[in-house]
Amino acid sequence: MGQSSSTEQGVSPELRQVQSLAASTGALPSLQKSFPLLSNPQTQSIPIASLQKCFDLTCANVESGQDAVLKELPLLFSHLGSAIVDLFFVADKNGVNEIEFLRGYTNICGRAVASTLLNNLLRVFSVACSKAGLQVDLQFELFDDNCKISGALLPRDVHMLLCICWIFVCDSRMFRLNAGKSEGKFSIPDISHLVFSAIEECGDRDAALDFWDSTASELDIQLPAAKIHLWALKNVPNLADCFQLFVHARLCYLTAPEVEKSEPSCSSAHESSSSAISEIRLLTPGRAWAISLSLRGAICEELSKACLPCDDYDTDENLLYQSSVDGKGLNRFWSRVGGYNGPSLILISACEQKSNARPWIIGALTDEGFENKDIYYGTSGSLYAISPVFHAFLSSGREKNFVYSHSRGRAYEAKPKPVGIGFGGTLGNERIFLDDDFARVTVRHHAIDKTYQHGNLFPNQGFLPTEASVFQVEVWGLGGRSAREVQASYQKREEIFTDQRRKIDLKTFTNWEDSPEKMMMDMVSNPNTVRREER
Question: From 209's CA, which of 131, 229, 371, 409 has a CA 20 to 30 Å away?
């Protein structure tokens, strides 16, 4: 006790208080190492220019002719650092002292309700746009414990905000993996499904939109800021975490006094291999990122690996089943998915059986993998409308009919159970039902489902059941390395059992002349044989 009291001598109560708040985030040791690297030893404060430079980004390799939003990103990123410092760090004539440095970090990365964190993100976006000369109609009324937001955003503004959040995630991941250096290139994926989602929920519901042939960022539609706020909390509640990850990485992974780090270079999605991947896979980086924004924990981390593959990670490890490669049908499905007990994500690409129909993609997430059962099972899950419009439908908490996956049994059943894979609803009235041949999928209205939240799974979904032809099915395992190892041992045992059943041990057979099989064959081959008359 004497040692602890001696070490705390000279520490003001105010500094001790902010240190306690920073310690609750788990970042206090890293911040205490970073502050001397950034501060001036004479003034014991961080110069404003140095702190701003910590958060500045460059985006030099954006294809200028592809999208107007991508053209404006470099200008916006050059003012990002000053916007963050102006909003959250209080400076005196010498700069930002240790107390205000820790307090600013806590205001950004400390524990707070989701709406407060989202307001912080929107405030940074608004101030950065204003400094860059980009007009964004957002107003904020700050109170002691709340922030009221008003105004409106255009689809291009929403697109730009989402691009910034994507860069935040990429940058923080690069900093963490490369020990404080943001090296390498990463592309901005297609996130139009998220922009269309905001347009559909926040725009004029009476306006008919062509989600397949329209460019989301070019639509001239006013989206009220309050509705955008509610849309984000419902569909992408972890969007504000992208900003927190960025600030944490930039302040806690500093390794040298110079802040002259190599900045990340962003390339257009058309220049990277993601476009080639999207042609053969349903789970593109943009779609995986959208789903990850609705999740937390280990599942979110596994999805992030699919969004942001690194050199030491192979995304194919998580791809359990792909119908275009492994073949369609439940038998092929079980041969690839059987034994995997971790969280699993299934994606289905389909198109309605009518003229002028356009394809769409839906998905379902189960926390415990797939099992061959003739009843519903599972403890939690989510449904997703993925393309062309993204929506997340989490568990409603009213019923537990999460997953149903049943193969055709050998025994006769007077009332056979449905054969296929289903989610939500009840037996025979599933909200999503994929038949055993993976040829058709039936999607029903949410009124018959009490397990998942309400909402349309594809544009213009009506009240009647919709039957669509299936193009492709994918299953991704999100249980990590341990789940893959357990499945590998399971599949190895199955191969051993299969080989044993194929082998014939002649020693186990008795004399053929005395065997029941020979007696039966003799009776069939010679019908004139004298037999006992049945009475």
Answer: 229
